[in-house]
Amino acid sequence: METTLSSIEPLIARAEKYGKTTFQLLKLKSLQQTSAVTSSLISRLFFVIVLSLFAFTLTTAVALLLGDLLGHNYYGFFIVAGFYGIIGIVLYFIHPFVKTRINNSIITQLLN
Question: What is the pTM of this model?
């Protein structure tokens, strides 16, 4: 009986070491995937902020230009606001498609 226990103890020790190593590997892989997704989202957010500032400046310039051409500055702002209203309505209707693509992209990044 004692020989059986003494031969099983190294096997149990190896299984315990294997379990700890596997758990450590799983933690490292999840950390890698999380950092990849986070860095991707942060870099995209930075790009969106810069693009938004550009769009805001360009929109103001176009509104002032249209207002100057039409005789009243507020006409240009009304036209630009109407344009953004139309874009908002279109985005409202394609929102589910965009949301699904973003979800799939995040899941793909997490699983690779």
Answer: 0.62
